[in-house]
Inverse folding.
């Protein structure tokens, strides 16, 4: 019985969500969720649309970026633009010199991104979370939900600290 | 890596070809009216033409290009500015010598000397320049009223003083028109031939006074 | 404690724990649960609002060292180039950008110049070269001499983004053609010296008028168009049109993810150039005015451009042509032959730049070649070959060194000798 109690305690620890992070359904795979306001009429975007939105080519959305060193941003830039962080920085500077507009607004954390998206119409951001605040929803990409193993926006596996 | 489809490639190439073959320029007509391309690839007046406001203009009958204007050929003169060249009356302007070879023509019997006893044949007794043939001006030298011819060489094209040597218009104007002009005239009284005025060019940094067409003297 | 009770307790605790965890994840009021402080959220929202009304100021500049690798006796130094190696700050360009209202953007760019100090003019009658000296005493400190310079407005426009297919821009804008003209700034450009075919301005560099543009996407490809109407070209085309004709232009760009980047564009422009000489004459107690054309031509410019990127390899290529037909009364004098006038012309040229981005230090060696047929009767052809190294020391700083040789075969010009010229340049260009 003591063993059963001990096992239960271990199970509770394992099942309770860890503060500030989310676990994907499959433990090693972390999708990057595109989040918009829950009442947004948009439910799905093609990968090309995502590329245009975060590459400065769309006027219907106001994209929000994470800081340049954030793992989610590094991976999203790699997936969308095949560029390293330095190359992305150069991309935006080059656009500004050409007079083509600057990068999306940078928000310090994914949690803030989700909160802002819930409150400011027209904004779109990304987080590597599965638990989103009320007032937001995750979009499908190419018709695929984040849980679908074919969902294209997935973080690269990184060694645990 | 996605390869372009054949239709997309063809469309791209077609766009480029269409864009580059549209034409405005005609290689067989690159100069203005009465112009041709010289060896240096610039547009020059064809033979017998002078620069005009639009390209070049052909000189008329009995005219030859003289710098930027058409001048009458020897033996011809304009009755008035702007009029076609007409043949000078026989005997007028012929070379004479007041001693050895007087003028034979009854009308143009005065041998007006210009250098010793050598001169040219003209008429005397005119009241005004209307009594004189084309471009000749009625002049009173104190003894005789006679029809004075325009300065020799005036308006001939030149590149240097050598081209004007021997003419009464011995100065080669090399700044603009490149023609022979009469120099060392007096402004007051105007010593230039009728229709010309003496121009003091000291304000332009030039020491000369030159006879130029009336109204063309730079002011200020 | 009885075993059954312990078991029930354990299971109940496990269930409550899971439920509590789920509830925390969905609870919007649980700011502390996702680590977002309400004050921080308000602050970010405020900053987001402020960004809309904020004036963004940024720019670029460059510093170049130039020397010519010809003998000091080269005729190029007689009338064209300075024989002395020189350092110079070339561009100092400032941008003022602001979102003036929802969907309304504004951009102003101007370049600060040392000119007109040092500008040379040659007297056509005496041949003497006069150099402008803008030295003045500083009114703040009479002991200091200042050389005043100038400002050149590169662009100043406002645009309304009506739809992805239609944005309308009004003002002075960079002519949308090719690669080099749009890239525009030294930190962005691969090379140091602009290709001669660009420097000849076969297209106007910028125009004042209206531009409409938009992009249609179809899958992973896109087609972008530009349509322009402007004052065209003229001596003061930025603020005064001297004829009734407007300049009309357009551009089409097709982009696709072939290789890593594939972009092909075609551009066109047509308009008239007019220069006039005005004078006032007082005659018969009335003022008579003349407003004669001293130079006038109709032109048609066409261009195609190609940009390819595959892995570390990059290829930029442009081909540009300009046809110019003079009005009969607007054909200017050829300054060399004096009595001759300029013929109609068809100038065309092409340049190709090939580069490879190495994995070390952001280095990118490149080669560039160019062929040009000019509109100058006395310098009909220019050939150029060059090589260089471009290094992006940081995203904001680009270092370049370039060696370039140009040939002018068949030159009969008095100032452009028929011998090659070799130029060595080194540049630091930066964005701030």
């Amino acid at each position: 019985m003591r063993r059963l109690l001990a096992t239960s305690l271990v199970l509770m620890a394992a099942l309770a969500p860890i503060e500030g992070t989310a676990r994907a359904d499959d433990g090693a795979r972390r999708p990057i969720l595109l989040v918009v306001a829950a009442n947004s009429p948009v439910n799905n975007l093609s990968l090309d649309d995502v590329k245009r939105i975060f590459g400065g080519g769309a006027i219907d959305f106001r994209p929000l970026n994470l800081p340049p060193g954030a793992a989610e941003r590094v991976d999203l830039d790699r997936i969308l633009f095949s560029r390293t962080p330095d190359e992305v920085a150069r991309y935006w500077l080059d656009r500004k010199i050409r007079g083509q507009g600057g990068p999306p607004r940078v928000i310090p954390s994914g949690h803030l991104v989700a909160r802002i998206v819930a409150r400011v119409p027209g904004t779109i951001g990304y987080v590597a979370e599965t638990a989103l605040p009320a007032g937001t929803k995750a979009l499908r990409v190419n018709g695929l939900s984040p849980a679908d193993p074919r969902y294209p926006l997935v973080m690269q596996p990184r060694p645990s600290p | 890596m996605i390869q372009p489809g054949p239709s997309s490639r063809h469309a791209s190439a077609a766009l480029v070809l269409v864009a580059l073959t549209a034409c405005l320029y005609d290689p067989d007509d690159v100069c203005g009216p009465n112009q041709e391309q010289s060896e240096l690839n610039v547009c020059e007046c064809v033979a017998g033409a002078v620069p005009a406001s639009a390209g070049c203009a052909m000189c008329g009958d009995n005219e030859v290009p003289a710098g930027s204007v058409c001048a009458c050929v020897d033996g011809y003169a304009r009755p008035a500015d702007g009029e076609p060249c007409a043949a000078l009356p026989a005997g007028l302007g012929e070379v004479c010598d007041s001693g050895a070879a007087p003028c034979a023509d009854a009308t143009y019997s005065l041998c007006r000397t210009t250098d010793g006893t050598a001169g040219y044949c003209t008429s005397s007794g005119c009241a005004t320049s209307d009594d004189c043939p084309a471009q000749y001006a009625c002049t009173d030298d104190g003894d005789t009223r006679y029809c004075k011819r325009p300065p020799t060489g005036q308006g001939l094209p030149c590149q240097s003083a050598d081209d004007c040597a021997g003419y009464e218009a011995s100065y080669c104007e090399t700044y603009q028109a490149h023609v022979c002009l009469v120099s060392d005239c007096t402004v007051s009284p105007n010593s230039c031939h009728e229709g010309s005025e003496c121009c003091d060019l000291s304000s332009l940094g030039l020491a000369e006074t030159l006879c130029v067409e009336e109204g063309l003297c730079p002011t200020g | 404690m009885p075993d059954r009770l312990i078991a029930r307790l354990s299971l109940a605790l496990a269930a409550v724990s899971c439920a509590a965890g789920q509830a925390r994840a969905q609870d919007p009021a649980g700011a502390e649960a996702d680590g977002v402080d309400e004050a921080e959220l308000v602050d970010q929202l405020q900053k987001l609002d402020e960004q809309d009304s904020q004036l963004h100021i940024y720019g670029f500049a460059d510093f170049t060292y130039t020397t010519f690798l010809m003998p000091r006796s080269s005729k190029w130094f007689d009338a064209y180039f300075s024989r002395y190696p020189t350092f110079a700050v070339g561009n100092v360009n400032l941008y003022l950008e602001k979102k003036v209202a929802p969907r309304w953007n504004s951009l102003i760019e101007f370049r600060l110049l040392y000119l007109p100090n040092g500008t040379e003019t040659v007297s056509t009658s005496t041949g003497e070269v006069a150099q402008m000296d803008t030295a003045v005493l500083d009114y703040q400190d009479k002991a200091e001499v200042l050389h005043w310079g100038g400002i050149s407005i590169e662009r100043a426009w406002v645009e309304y983004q009506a739809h992805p297919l239609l944005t309308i821009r009004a003002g002075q804008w960079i002519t949308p053609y090719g690669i080099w003209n749009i890239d525009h700034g030294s930190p962005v450009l691969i090379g140091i010296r602009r290709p001669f075919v660009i420097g000849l301005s076969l297209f106007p560099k910028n125009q004042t008028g209206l531009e409409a543009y938009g992009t249609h996407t179809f899958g992973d490809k896109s087609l972008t168009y530009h349509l322009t109407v402007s004052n065209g070209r003229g001596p003061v085309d930025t603020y005064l049109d001297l004829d009734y004709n407007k300049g009309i232009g357009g551009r089409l760009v097709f982009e696709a993810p072939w290789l890593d980047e594939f972009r092909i564009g075609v551009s066109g422009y047509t308009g008239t150039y007019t220069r006039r000489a005005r004078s006032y004459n007082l005659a018969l107690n009335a003022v008579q005015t003349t407003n004669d054309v001293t130079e006038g031509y109709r032109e048609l410019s066409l261009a195609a451009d190609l940009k390819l990127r595959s892995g570390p390899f990059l290829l930029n290529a442009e081909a540009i042509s300009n046809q110019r037909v003079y009005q009969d009364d607007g054909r200017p004098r050829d300054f060399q032959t004096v009595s001759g006038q300029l013929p109609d012309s068809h100038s065309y040229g092409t340049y190709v730049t090939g580069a490879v981005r190495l994995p070390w230090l952001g280095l990118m060696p490149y080669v560039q070649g160019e062929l040009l047929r000019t509109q100058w009767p006395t310098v009909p052809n220019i050939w150029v070959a060059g090589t260089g190294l471009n290094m992006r020391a940081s995203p904001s700083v680009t270092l370049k060194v370039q060696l370039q040789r140009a040939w002018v075969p068949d030159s009969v010009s008095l100032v452009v000798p028929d011998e090659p010229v070799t130029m060595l340049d080194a540049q630091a260009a930066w964005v701030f």
